[in-house]
Design a protein that fits this description.
3-stranded antiparallel β-sheet
C-alpha cells in the first residue's frame, strides 16, 4: 500500500472552550426565550388592561383589572412577572395577582411557560355570565403570536451564538 501522507484531523480548540461554547449557547437560548415570552406577556397585559369599559368591563373597585398580569416560568422557576399595577382601589387585586403567579410555578416544571392571569375569583363569572372579555381574546392572541415571536427570538439567539463560534 502506498502512504499518501495523510494524517488525522487535529483539534486545535480546547475541550474547555467547546464546553464553554455549549454552556454559553444554552444560556443565550434561554435568555432569548424568556425575553420573547416577556415581550408577548407585556403585549397580552396591554390587550387586557388597557381597554375601555365598553370594550371590557366597567371597574368598580379596580381589583379585577389590578389582578391581571403574567409570569414567565423556566422549568418550575419563576423568571419574571408583571408589576400588577393597582387600578383605582384595587390593592387586593394586585396582591392576588402576585400571589397566583408565585403559586403557579410548580405547574410548569417541565418547560418554559408564559401564564397570563386574572386572579380575582369572580373573573370567570365576569367573562361567562356577564359576557365580558377578560382573558379569552388574549389567549387567542397569544396562541396566534407565540410561534412567530419565538422564531424571532431563536433568530436573535442564532446570531449571538454565531458570534461566539466565530471568536473560537
Amino acid at each position: 500500500m502506498q502512504d499518501l501522507g495523510m494524517s488525522g484531523i487535529k483539534m486545535t480548540t480546547s475541550q474547555k472552550a467547546i464546553d464553554n461554547l455549549f454552556r454559553d449557547a444554552a444560556k443565550i437560548v434561554s435568555e432569548e426565550i424568556i425575553n420573547t415570552l416577556t415581550y408577548l406577556g407585556e403585549q397580552c397585559v396591554v390587550k387586557i388592561r388597557d381597554r375601555s369599559g365598553e370594550d371590557s368591563w366597567f371597574d368598580q373597585t379596580g381589583n379585577l383589572r389590578s389582578s391581571i398580569g403574567y409570569g414567565i416560568y423556566s422549568y418550575g422557576r419563576k423568571q419574571i412577572s408583571s408589576a400588577f399595577a393597582q387600578v383605582l382601589e384595587g390593592a387586593s387585586g394586585a396582591a392576588e395577582g402576585k400571589k397566583m403567579i408565585e403559586e403557579l410555578a410548580s405547574h410548569y416544571a417541565t418547560a418554559y411557560a408564559l401564564v397570563c392571569v386574572a386572579a380575582m375569583s369572580y373573573a370567570e363569572y365576569v367573562e361567562a355570565i356577564d359576557g365580558k372579555d377578560v382573558l379569552a381574546s388574549t389567549e387567542i392572541y397569544a396562541k396566534a403570536k407565540v410561534a412567530e415571536y419565538l422564531r424571532r427570538g431563536i433568530g436573535k439567539a442564532e446570531k449571538r451564538i454565531q458570534s461566539l463560534v466565530v471568536s473560537l
